[in-house]
Amino acid sequence: MAVMDYVRERFMPHIWCPGCGHGTIMNNLVRAIESLGLKKSEIVMVTGIGCSSRISGYLDFHTLHTIHGRALAFATGVKLARPELTLIVPMGDGDALAIGGNHFLHAARRNIDITAIIMNNSIYGMTGGQFSPLSGYGKTATTAPYGNIYESFDIVQLAKAAGASFVGRTTTYHVTSMMEMIEEAIRHKGFSVVEILTQCPTYFGRKNKVGDAVDMLNYYKDHTVPIGSDKKKENPALIERGVFVREERAEYCEEYEKTVKRAEKGG
Amino acid sequence: MPFRETESLLPSGSYYFSGNEAATEGALAAGCRYYAGYPITPSSEIMERIAVRLKELKGVFMQMEDEIASICSVIGAVWAGAKGMTATSGPGFSLMQEGIGYGAFTETPMVVVDIQRAGPCTGQATRVGSGDHQQAKWGSHGDYQVIALSPWSVQEMYDLTIDAFNLAEQYRVPVFLMGEESVGHLRERMDVRPKVTVFDRAKKKGTPPFGMVEEDGVPPMPCFGEGEKLLVTGSTHNDAGIRKTDDPLVHEKLVSRINNKVLNHREEIIQTESYYVDDATCLVVSYGFTARSALYAVNKLRGEGGRVGLLRLKTIWPFPDQVIRVLGKKAGKIYVPEMNRGQVAGEIMKYADCDVVPYFQTNGEIIDPRTIINQVRSLA
Fold first, then answer.
1. Reported ipTM
2. pLDDT value at A210 more than 90
3. Which of B34, B231, B242 sits opposite A81 (nearest CB)?
4. Which CATH number fits domain B3-199: 3.40.50.150, 3.40.50.1820, 3.40.50.970, 3.40.1280.10?
5. Exposure letters B336-372 (e unless 16+ CB within 10 A, then b)
6. CATH fold of A7-264
7. In Å, how far is A38's CA from the nearest CA of chain B?
8. Mutate to test the interface with B, among A10, A80, A262 (most CBs of B within 10 A)
9. Model pTM above 0.95
10. Mean pLDDT of B318-339
11. What value does the mean pLDDT of chain A take?
């Protein structure tokens, strides 16, 4: 199937700002799905609210555009009612980890076969540039005009600790590895998390004077290294990218089936 | 209409159940295939019984991380084709409101059992209250309709749960079973009939899932994984489900229809029961557990020659305005005892063309029939 067959072209142009990284993620996501040979009708894409959530409007799968932070809870119901479907849940960083933080932790703990893609642009874009749980200490946002005093979550550590059995991180600069990582995450049986650093030149970029989209992409190139790189030892501030967790572990729907079998036998 | 008769899951006969157990059995009889919930007194027995009856559920039971996740996962499962339910009490019902709004706007059939306790807030978790009726109607933002039923017995916890599923599927709307702690934990005899009437949601390939020609119609509902393309969104959408958030006509049409599909079918939806209303000069209007005390009181007063009648509301939403109007006018006086501060009395005042005397009791206890007797006597 051609990549464009997955796209609802009639809804173009998209709403993402010039220079936004979300389109790059959508591009790689559909390429990953094409490479996996999945049919449109086999995929349910569930999203919440925010810039990231609009992706479900542009892609021609079954799509469930829900409420802020709850996408994983909705997806859990879909998956359990029809385990044969492939569930993909793109979320923003605020969507996934502020309002949706608890659902994220518990979805990971269940190790349910859902692919969570966190489009981390470090800001609330849709609402106009408020700080998010991934903005970082000292960063500026409309609600942190004198500097943000929160530290960021580390999504990889969080997902790992909560029990996700596949955890990866990449950026919109590293498009080839992004596609491969998404592909592997979808193929992975269990809860898979792919954090993708994606630039928001309109709000994060402007507020923090980090330049335009190209400058931000260059930042990802210069400030991230593959896992285990020697450069990280010299400069601990560098962000590692790659697959951090890749484990085969009991998946929730399969465990649930076993429970049903025990119930049928009478305990 | 896609109503069908099916064999009862439980062998027909008499059972000695609690209200919460009866609601669980009602759900299983109605074809519930997905249940998600979070522990909360005084409703937890529903979830516990579902967990035990996993085999009969022929579907999925989930204990989720909170009530928000519970209702959202139910909605997800319903769009994947299951009949779905959750149960809770006041604090959880408050948390569920955003999911209820999503359910109303996306026309997702689902059942929420609310076993009410004495609020507000944590209140008296193990004591009875009936203070969630206005929240049931107005708890989420914007204009939408729901259906809310008010059981007075263990039998009705069973019967009205089945009705709740059927109404949800028929009108594609969230339906609430507004039980109270006193009926949830009450144990009494109830009967199971050999056959159960169930409604399966209408499906029609190629028809738009969110709109139709009729301004008060209920569109057929496709689901994920059955071949039809499907976009579901909580944003304003056109008949096909496509977001249209800047078109005033689309918004007006959708909001009108999700209201009219319930309001224009009030006659088919609303259930009430009346006792001695023909010659009554005082009409007691009651619902839920309080109606048991009210019926006792009315019988007693009738025995003394008092011209007192009882109208029992089995449906709270959509509100039975017409019967209130007619019977109120006939009696000239309405008395409303409630385990809240007048949530239904206020509604009655909107429609009754007569004096309405409310009685509030919010002390965590049921209303004693003697209280009703004394009050009605003093009205005469």
1. 0.96
2. yes
3. B34
4. 3.40.50.970
5. bbbbbebbbbbbbbebbebebbbbebbebebbebeeb
6. Rossmann fold (3.40.50)
7. 13
8. A80
9. yes
10. 98
11. 97
